Every structure is written in structure tokens, then in C-alpha cells.
Amino acid sequence: MKVCEPAAPAAITLDEVTVRYGAHLAIERASFAVRPGDLMALVGPSGCGKTSLLNAINRLSDLIPGCTVTGRIAVGGRDVRAPDINLTALRRKVGMVFQQPNPFPLSIAENLRFPLREHGVSNRDERERRTEEALRAVGLWEEVKGRLGQPAQALSGGQQQRLCLARTLVLGPEVLLFDEPCSALDPLSAGVIEALIAGLKGRYTILLVTHNLPQARRLADTVAVCWVSEGCGCVVESGPCGVLFERAAHPITRAYCGGEVG
Amino acid sequence: MRIEGARDRWAAALFGGASLMIMALPLLMLVEVVGAGLPRLSSEFLYAPPMDAGRAGGIGPMIVSTLAILAVCLFAALPVGLGCALYLAECVTAGGRAARALGYSLDVLGGVPSIVFGLFGYRLFAIELGLGFSILSGGLTLACMVLPLLIRVSEEALRATPPSYRQAAAALGLSQGGFLRRVLVPAAAPGIAAALILSIGRALAESAALLFTAGYVTRLPDSVFDSGRALAVHIYDLSMNVAGGEASAAATAVVLVGLLVLINICARRLGQTVHRMQRA
Fold this sequence. Notes:
The complex is a heterodimer.
Chain A: E1 12-21, E2 24-34, E3 39-43, H1 50-57, E4 67-75, E5 78-79, H2 87-93, E6 94-97, H3 110-118, H4 124-137, H5 141-144, H6 157-169, E7 175-179, H7 187-200, E8 205-209, H8 213-219, E9 222-229, E10 232-240, H9 241-247, H10 251-257
Parallel strand pairs in A: 3-8, 3-9, 6-7, 7-8
Antiparallel strand pairs in A: 1-2, 1-4, 4-5, 9-10
Helix pairs in contact in A: 3-4, 4-6, 6-7
Chain B: H1 5-37, H2 43-47, E1 50-51, E2 56-57, H3 60-91, H4 97-111, H5 114-128, H6 135-159, H7 163-171, H8 176-187, H9 189-204, H10 208-211, H11 231-241, H12 246-279
Antiparallel strand pairs in B: 1-2
Helix pairs in contact in B: 1-12, 3-6, 3-9, 4-6, 5-6, 6-9, 7-8, 8-12, 9-12, 11-12
């Protein structure tokens, strides 16, 4: 599998998905679909369960004590909660970039080589090639090629976030989950990340959680609007970006996308 | 923060005084011990065997026995302690049933007087397992004794690493073994080194637990199955049972403190090196 060029972006389907933390209902009966290669923006106020949905897709929710997920989530037509699912393969297929850049306390290069080794890329030359390719894909190669052995944490916040994106891309995913990837960055770095995400459209199926409505409008093919009702999150409406921003059917969507609430 | 008003000034003086006292205490102790022991200290004292019940001669065999007991102790305690700390930090929910049960056991063990560990070690290692009075019995008894401290401090060091590392590793589908080996343990290495230093400190200072296990003989041990007298036991013996042995006891104490400082420096360096190597 060639790095940064997935075989084919996979579709994501959520059908009546409910996420609970113990007795607390985070989001209830969420349903939407993202077509292969599309970018869907998940927008809505804080606490409406957007991140919970992302974590349910790559099953990071398994790591949260007391978290239960019901409903059907499929990536590339395959139920991610099927008993025979290979979790390692799922997480290689579904990459994720978080709000805060979270490089490992390793060197810049080792941040990419280590996951490759873990996923069975035993050939050194292959690892080096894929590392360079991923760093080029995020526009970081020219900036770091002379100091690949230096600690990743010495990079700026924006560079660290690009490194985290490269670390995800190096495994050749088909789906990318972005959890507010620009919100912890300065405007210039955020612009660079946004441009990178725009460049990835079409080659990966992307689900982007963002509070930045103009960013959602610039990037997204489709949008899902989440809302909190009686302490529980829900998806009030989803559809093509233009439709939701211009002539949404639901009053909450109209008010939220129109900037009247939220 | 500015200090304003008479009450604040008094409080600051009081706390400052207490801090000075704390700093002065080890200094006073060192001055006392070094003052009493310096006349006996020489290079010969470090390698010669004791003579005249320790009033003359040196402490060579005791240094060897102490280092051998410490090596056995660390060899046994490190893998078990680090394994248990990793289990507590990574496999058990903090505050959960298993964590509470294990934590309670460790706290009880940590509070057991060393003499009780000595009796336990004598019964289990010396008698039941047939190891007799030996370096091995002493080292294994000390390992049981330092385990609670080693586990608790290592667990804290592991828990103190950012949760974002775990999150990133899980999202990338990395194996837990690979993550522990390559990211978590090296990241916590300085804290684990601190746990090691505290454990070594406790083991080196121990005499009660070794009286019943490692034995009392002053000759150079041939192997770990041989009996050997640790430095702390030697100090105890010279102070309590040998009239005129005070100067030798003080000189031995200086060597013990020196050894402790040296091992502390080595362990700290080791922690930093592991931490640095991780980034390469």
C-alpha cells in the first residue's frame, strides 16, 4: 500500500448510534453517511457528542471506562463492532488527528518509523521512503530534513500537528478523523493545517469536527449539525454543505449556521 | 508573590527557619560522622579485612557483601516491581477494585517493620527454600522489603506521563508492548530512577532484616550462597557489641553514605540517559 495514497477511500455509515458514559447519554440515535472521498464537517456546540461519535468510529471509546456504544457504525461497509474485527487493522484504516498535537517523546523521524515498525514494515529502506513521503505530504520535509534526529517536541505547535498528520498518513489510512485539529493553533498554523486538509479531500474520506463554521463551509462537501437537547446530544440535520448553510430545513440548523445561536 | 505586613513576615521567617533546620540536619549528621570517622579512613580501610573484631583493619569484605546483597535485591525487585507498576498504571482502572486491593496490600507491606521482613525472609528463604544464611537470602528479603516503595513510586512516574501518548498509540493501532517499551517506560525513566534510588537507599541502610538472613560473618563471600555481613550490620555490631569500635563504625558510616551518593548519581544518570536515548 503506497503511503498517502489509499487504495480507495472508504464510506462511513452511522445508523442510530448512541454513546453513553455510564448513565449519562452523550449522543443519541445519530445517523448519517459520508460517501467515499467526501469531507463531512461535524459542527455544533461543545458537549453535543461530536468527539464521542469520532471515538466510536475507530473504537477509541473502548478505552473509556463505562463507555457503551449501540447502533451500527460501518467503515467501507464493514461493521466496526463486529466480533471478528481486527482492531489494529481498523485503526490503521481509520487514522485520527487530535485537537492538541500529541507527538511521542521520540525524534521527529522516529515518530513515523516507530508506527511503521509496529505495523510490520520491517524493511529499513521502505520505512525511510515512507517517512520522507509522509513528511513531504504535510509540507514538513524541507523544514526538518536536516534535523530528523531531534526531539519532535522541539517543533512548534503547528509543525507538531503536521507531524501528527504525517504519522497518521504514513500508515496509509482510508478514512481520516479530525477532532478540531486547528483549535489549539495560532491562525497561521491553523491556515496551513486547513490547506492540508483541503488537499487531502477526494483521496481520503474525512470526518472533521470543528467549531469554526466558516472553516466548515470552506472545506466540507457535507455537514452534520449536532445539538444538545435536554442534556443529550443528537444530530438534528445532515446534508450537502450548500443546502445546510443556505436553506436548512431544521430551525436549529438555520439559526446555528446563520450565526444566530451557538 | 510579595510579602506584606508583619504577620506575613513572621510566617515567612518561621517557614524559612524550618527549611534551614531541614537543610542543617543532614549537614550536622555528616559533620558528626565524618569528624568521628575520618581518623580511621584510608585506602587500606576500604579493601582490608577487619581485625580485632573490627576495631582495626578495614571493611573490604563488607563492601563486597553489601554490593552483592544490593545486586541480588535489585535483580529480583526490578522486574517484579516494574511489572507490577506497569500493571497498576496501564491494565487496572485507577480507583477500581483491583487497583484498591493491590494498593492496600502494598500499603500494608510498606508499613511492615523491617525486623518482621527479616523473620519472614529467614523462615522462607533461609529455612524453607534451604538457602541458609546467605547473600541470596538477604538480597531476596530486601527485595520483598523495597518492593512496595519501588512499585508505588514507579507507578506514580508511569501515571504522570501525558495521557495523550496513550491516546495517540491507541489511535495508531500500536501494540501495548511496543508502546510500553518504546514510549511509556523511557518517558517515565527519570521517575523510575528516583524509585530505584529510594529503594537502594532503603536497602543499603537496612540492618535488621539482614541479621537473620545474610548473616554476620566478616569474611569475603565466595558466592551468593555464602554468608556475608552488610555495611549497616557492621555499623550496628561495632556500635552495640564492640567496645572501642565507635571510630570504625563512624568510618564505615562515611563509606556507606559515600556509596549511597555514588549509586544515586549513577541511577540518576542512567534515568537521564534512557530518557535521552528514547528520542534517538
